[in-house]
Amino acid sequence: MRAALVEAFAIALADPTLEVLLTGEGPCFSNGGDLREFGTTPDVSTAWAVRLTQHPGWQLAQLADRTTVHMHGNCIGAGVEIPAFASRVIADPETTFLLPELAMGLIPGAGGCVSIPRRIGRWRTLWLVLTGTRLSSHEALSWGLIDDIVPIN
Fold first, then answer.
1. pLDDT, tens digit, for every residue of 118-142?
2. To which H or E segment does residue 2 belong?
3. Which of 19, 56, 80, 141 has CA 20 to 30 A from 6's CA?
């Protein structure tokens, strides 16, 4: 999925007339990064090169002013971090938000250490990461993690 996002965002970056609408299919917007991809590169330097050159969060930060995200269902890890770069984030009333990385021995690695504090501040971001608490769409709206709640069909 990361490669597809990188490719789509590269097209949008090349054409400043394009608007970006990011949605998810199925029961949830995104369950986060694919854990099967972790540790599959042949060495550490290749892993870092992939993370630096194929980072949809960095691209989305450049596209933020012309990007809208519609979220629904469970939004976990990268499924929270990457959308937080967008200038307009809309969630269905039943949407939930979770950063479970710390429980897996990780930190938010899809840009959430930058994107989420920009929206909700450092202390709330730290609280979400340390506690692994799931936020409702109404809590996310009151904190500024999302911009609006609209039923998404």
1. 999 999 999 999 999 999 999 999 9
2. helix 2-14
3. 141
